[in-house]
Structure formats: structure tokens, C-alpha cells
Design goal:
Shape: elongated
CATH superfamily: MetI-like
CATH class: Mainly Alpha
Helix content: 55-70%
Largest sheet: none
Radius of gyration: 22 Å
């Protein structure tokens, strides 16, 4: 993704760390079949609960240890990055597109359409997100598609509110009035003049929202309401080791660290983008 020109320049340390971790996760997701030493679902009961090989005298073949079924933790973490990124990209992308279109049209046209969109957003925001997500997944069943549906159905409201507020400000500009005076259609005006001026705020929101989606996906998978158990996911791995932390701490610890590192990376990028794209903060970054 090409950043706006005003974002270019020397990157601060937090942005470098964020980019580095994000790049590592993306590489793991794209090259999982070549990076993972084992198939993530291969079981070896004689090797169950093997310690990480750097904690034992002999190399047991498990760099981060194995779980209760003898599956390699490192391989499952690498493949789990695919699930987290896939759900994150689909959820943030679809909810961002839906919410941005609804919010931009509501802010531009106003009237009953604005009231309808914003009141619907208020209703969804009034319901605790995690309870709504659990209820929807419990009805639809655990699957990647259903998880994405949950996120799109509940997260679009954030983008809609931001897009509506930004559009209300932008549409008062002289360039929008000039476009309307020249006979430009509302769709053309929103596409060429409104959308480019609200994109920065939406990019920042999407970057920060990505980490939130990963946390919620992991939490739902931990509860058995997210990704099906046969698919390696970080939240599911946390659940696998929660009852035997005193015997095999590595089963839950390393997936937990992967979640923390990934979410922190996206939050650092979001903070940096906010500092660069917000004119009130640009001089402080």
C-alpha cells in the first residue's frame, strides 16, 4: 500500500518495529508451507508434550515444543498467522467498505437517510460487542465465514460514524460547491472530492481496528466459538494448553506472545499513522 506523500520521511522507532513485526507475520502467512517444519495437524503421541528443544539436552525436533497430541507448536503458530491475517483483512476490509459507503452517503445526503444510518449505528453500538458476537456465532456455528459475518455486521458502524462526520465537514468546502455548480453528479462528487479527503481518517481507524479483530477472533476461538478446532489458530492453541500450564507452559505461551506481538505492531502503526495524518498532531510526532 502506498502511503500518502505527507507520511513519507524518516520512520520513528515505533513505526519500524511495527512494520518489522507485521512483515514477519505476513511472510509467515504467505510462506507457511515452506517455513513450517511439520504439517500443523500431524500427530505423534509418543512425542506429546515435548519441551522446546533448547530446553533439553538432545534435539527433539520441536523448536517450540509440542502439544498434547504431539503436534508441532511452531508449525501451528506459523499456519495460525494465516487465519488471523485472513480474518483480519476480510473483516476490516469489508466492514470498512460497507461502513465508509453508508457513512459517506449519510453525511453527504443528510435527511432521513442520515438519521436511519446513524440511528442503526447507535443501536448496534449500544449492545456490548462481545455478547453480540458470541450470540451470532452461537447461532450460526463456528467457521471462518461466520466470524467474518460477525465482524462485518458489528464493526461497520465505527467506519460509518467516522465517514459521516468527516463528510459533513468536507462537503462544506468550496471545491465540493464548485463541483456541484459544474453539474457533477453526487456519486462523482463523493468519489472524486469527498472520498480522497476522508481516506486518511479511515486508514488510521482500519489499522487500529485490525488488532482488535485479531484479539476478538482469538478470544472467540479460545471459547470454541471461532475457528473450528481442526484449523490451527492462535486462540485455539491458547485453549489447548490452558488446563496444563503447569506441565506444558509452552503450548499457550508462544501463541499468546504471537497475538501480543501482532496486535502491538498494528497499534504502533496506527498510532504513527494518526500522528502523521492528523494535522493537529503532525508537528508533535
Amino acid at each position: 500500500m502506498k502511503l500518502p506523500t505527507r507520511v513519507a520521511g524518516r520512520l520513528p522507532s515505533k513505526a519500524i518495529i511495527g512494520f518489522a513485526v507485521m512483515a514477519a507475520v505476513v511472510v509467515c502467512a504467505l510462506l507457511a508451507p515452506w517455513l513450517a517444519p511439520y504439517d500443523p495437524n500431524d500427530q505423534s503421541l509418543p512425542d506429546r508434550l515435548s519441551k522446546p528443544n533448547w530446553l533439553v539436552d538432545e534435539d527433539n525436533g520441536y523448536f517450540l515444543g509440542s502439544d498434547g497430541l504431539g503436534r508441532d507448536i511452531l508449525s501451528r503458530i506459523i499456519y495460525g498467522s494465516r487465519i488471523s491475517l485472513t480474518i483480519g483483512i476480510l473483516a476490516v476490509g469489508l466492514s470498512g467498505i460497507l461502513g465508509s459507503l453508508l457513512g459517506m452517503s449519510a453525511g453527504y445526503f443528510g435527511g432521513w437517510w442520515e438519521q436511519l444510518v446513524l440511528r442503526l449505528a447507535d443501536i448496534i453500538l449500544s449492545i456490548p460487542f462481545i455478547l453480540l458476537a458470541i450470540a451470532i456465532v452461537a447461532v450460526l456455528g463456528p467457521s471462518i465465514v461466520n466470524l467474518v459475518i460477525v465482524f462485518v455486521a458489528t464493526r461497520w458502524v465505527r467506519y460509518a460514524r467516522v465517514a459521516a462526520a468527516q463528510t459533513l465537514s468536507v462537503k462544506e468546502g468550496d471545491f465540493v460547491a464548485a463541483a456541484n455548480a459544474m453539474g457533477a453528479s453526487p456519486i462523482r462528487t463523493m468519489r472524486l472530492h469527498v472520498l480522497p479527503n476522508i481516506t486518511s481518517a479511515l486508514i488510521v481507524l482500519a489499522t487500529l481496528d485490525f488488532g482488535f479483530v485479531i484479539i476478538i477472533e482469538s478470544g472467540l476461538s479460545f471459547l470454541g466459538l471461532g475457528v473450528p478446532p481442526q484449523i490451527p489458530s492462535w486462540g485455539g492453541m491458547l485453549a489447548d494448553g490452558r488446563n496444563i500450564l503447569n506441565l506444558a507452559w509452552w503450548i499457550s505461551t508462544f501463541p499468546g506472545l504471537a497475538i501480543v506481538a501482532t496486535v502491538t505492531a498494528f497499534n504502533l502503526l496506527g498510532d504513527w499513522l494518526r500522528d502523521k495524518l492528523d494535522p493537529t498532531l503532525r508537528g508533535q510526532g
